[in-house]
Amino acid sequence: MKKLTSSTILIIPIILIGMISACQLTIKVPANSPSTEQESDIPFETIVLDEEGFVNALGEQPQLVMINSADEIPQIAKSISREARQKLERVDFQHYIVIGLFRNAKPSGGYPTYIKRISKHGNQLIVQTEFWEPPPVYTGIIEATATYHLVKLARNGDLPATVELVLEAQIITSTPLPR
Fold first, then answer.
1. What does the domain layout of the chain look like in residue ranges?
2. Which stretches does DSSP call E strand in 4-88?
3. C-beta separation of 119 from 158 below 8 A
């Protein structure tokens, strides 16, 4: 029987930690200052979920955008499909605001983007999202994509007069199917 050296004993936990952390990574943008106010969920409804994203990326980094009126739609028009723009133009902005989550450009398909939860904490709307990544051996769409998710929230007493959007993103790598 071989005796384990101290360097071998140290390497094994490091490898295990690396394998576990490679499965899921959470990126959080912390609040500017702690508050004693309770966090509360804000209900929302999906307007458009584009999981393929054959459009221009809105930027080089994932972005959250708030649309308060139909006059603001042109700022994202080049980054959404014609059908999405038509649905967005039908939103009653007297009663709703729209939040858009835009993924930066990716080299292929397999990068869907989802808004999973929106909560209010003081004047912040915390948008919890999932950014999916394809498995290492991906054989799907091979052209550049930029996915997005547009949701609407009711304008009511739950929303503060001035809002700061906070992105909490979770990156998830899908598991390849067994062969």
1. 42-173
2. 24-28, 40-41, 45-50, 63-67
3. no
